Amino acid sequence: MPGWLKLARNIIGAAVLLLLLTTIGLWFLSYPSRPGQFYRAGISETARAGHLLKAGPYLRDLPEGASARRILHTTTLNGGVPATASALVLWKDDPAASETAPRRVIAWARSASGAAPGCGGSMQGAPYAGIPALDALLNEGWVLVASDYAGLTTPAAHPYLIGNGEARSVLDAVRAAHDLPDITLSLETIIWGHSQGGHAALWSGILARNYAPELQLKGIAAIAPATDLPAMVADIETTPEGRIFSSYVARAYADTYPDLYFSGIVRPEARWQATEISKRCLGGIDGLVPALIADKLTKGSIFRGGETGTSFRKHLAENVPDKRIAFPILILQGKRDEVVSARVQAGFARRRCQAGETIDYQAFDQQDHMSIIGPDSPAVPELLTWTRARFAGRPAPAICPK
């Protein structure tokens, strides 16, 4: 064998081996890190929801001039099952302000980051990514309380697109933050949320009066919220993005509802892929593997029909946030949204207007699902203006889609 041919064969072999090792490494490294000791605490069945269990300084990616605490608190899941959840509390230090002056609260409900322990925002490298107008929020003197939701850092079923569970995590994070000795919080609260978080924000508005009546909720701002879940799933379930979200919702619903099971929701040909996707988080390099699986290793919808499929769709419909919300609602929607279509969103908003809700519906021609929360998005100043007006006690506008 000529020397050059032997050299070429060795180079190709080394390249293939390197590619194989890199792929294997990426595969295993894409699983989320296990939550540490901070996220573990025993709770009794009679534990009060919204009780602060632990708190500690949090320095990761800290904005200049700001302070943050990571908290662990009690909450409840569907059916009142006791659980724990974590959150971040962030504020800007103001030497000129009184340390005892209560600060208004923005509760941030995050968009989807996964469905497994390790996917919570406080465990990510960029914990404040995706929060619109963060600097402006802090400069207003408001305090951010960003829930991780139950099950993403703690040992519980994550309530992905399950309204009761999401809302309880959001509301209980705010209640627990009031127990912090570091800062005095006002009961005046506005909830912001994007995508899954928009769904959680709307459900927080549904539950707040009965579940957390001590909070003075001034409004709900839902950005590209997941609202009409059956219509939304029907729109995207055969796309790669839709298969990722479908895997998360299949895992969450199977873990929550006694009449559902994962292998009954997911068709046999897609079960391995859906299982592997549901074990991983979105965002950063970790999100490459679920994106690859969803795009290359399976096609069509992951869902199956039959009796379990019918029950699954029934539970989806139960989690549409279409119950009474006694607070002003802002819905910000991009007309180019590829996850929650503007058509579906406008239909939902129109029905809630007809039901008597105070809806301010704003649609933006050039924005898609992620760019609507970008720093240059025209939705961001609308969000801030609306929030300032609600804290100021001005009447909320009612603008419904035609």
Structural account:
Residues 16-23 have low confidence and may be disordered. Helix content is 37%, strand content 17%. The chain has twelve helices and nine strands. The radius of gyration is 22 Å and the shape is globular. A nine-stranded mixed sheet has the order 1-2-3-5-4-6-7-8-9, with helices on both faces. It has helices at 3-29, 134-139, 163-177, 196-211, 229-236, 240-256, 262-265, 271-278, 288-296, 306-318, 342-354, 379-391, and strands at residues 52-57, 66-76, 82-92, 103-109, 143-147, 185-194, 216-223, 329-334, 359-364. It is of the alpha/beta class and 402 residues long. α3 (163-177) packs across α4 (196-211). A hairpin with an 8-residue loop joins β1 (52-57) and β2.
Can you give me a brief rundown of this structure?
The chain has 402 residues and is an alpha/beta fold. The chain contains twelve helices and nine strands. A nine-stranded mixed sheet has the order 1-2-3-5-4-6-7-8-9, sandwiched between helices.
Q: Which terms summarize this structure?
A:
9 strands; nine-stranded mixed beta sheet; 17% strand; 402 residues; globular
Secondary-structure map:
Blueprint: H1 3-29, E1 52-57, E2 66-76, E3 82-92, E4 103-109, H2 134-139, E5 143-147, H3 163-177, E6 185-194, H4 196-211, E7 216-223, H5 229-236, H6 240-256, H7 262-265, H8 271-278, H9 288-296, H10 306-318, E8 329-334, H11 342-354, E9 359-364, H12 379-391
Parallel strand pairs: 4-5, 4-6, 6-7, 7-8, 8-9
Antiparallel strand pairs: 1-2, 2-3, 3-5
Helix pairs in contact: 3-4, 6-8, 6-9, 8-9
